[in-house]
Design goal:
3% of the residues lie in helices and 44% in strands. It is mainly beta. It has one domain: Jelly Rolls.
Length: 132
């Protein structure tokens, strides 16, 4: 394996497979050959919300908003985000994103991934969906 790798995120296949309409995800971990880092690109069309959040058993993640604006769900809190905001999320915190009127693009950086994976899909709704 080489001591470096160069990969263009936009040239990688969208790995979401259309599971979330209006969202795409491009994952570079296997393409860059890193044992410790995963770097991904997520893009949402205007006003699209990730319907399901997720957490991790081990991986801490950081997200950098590179285009647009929107909101991020962090457990039961919703925070606004805009271009160049960095959001660090501890493994156990449920996270999900919602694009604003101009869409949203986020680079996600994660640490070492256990062989069996460690993502946990959250079944709970966004906090503002449970309001009466």
């Amino acid at each position: 394996m080489s001591d470096y790798a160069i990969v263009n995120l936009l040239e990688l296949d969208d790995s979401t497979g259309g599971r979330v309409a209006g969202m795409e995800g491009r994952f570079s971990r296997k393409h860059i050959g890193s044992r410790d880092l995963g770097v991904s690109l997520f893009r949402w069309e205007p006003n699209v919300r990730s319907t399901r959040g997720h957490s991790h058993r081990e991986q801490e993640e950081a997200y950098v908003v590179v285009e647009g604006s929107g909101r991020v769900r962090l457990d039961d809190e919703i925070r606004d985000v805009r271009q160049w905001d960095v959001v660090r999320v501890a493994p156990e915190v449920v996270r999900a994103f919602e694009a604003g009127p101009d869409g949203l693009a986020v680079i996600a950086v994660g640490g070492p991934k256990p062989e069996e994976g460690d993502g946990v899909v959250a079944d709970s709704a966004w906090p503002d969906e449970s309001e009466g």
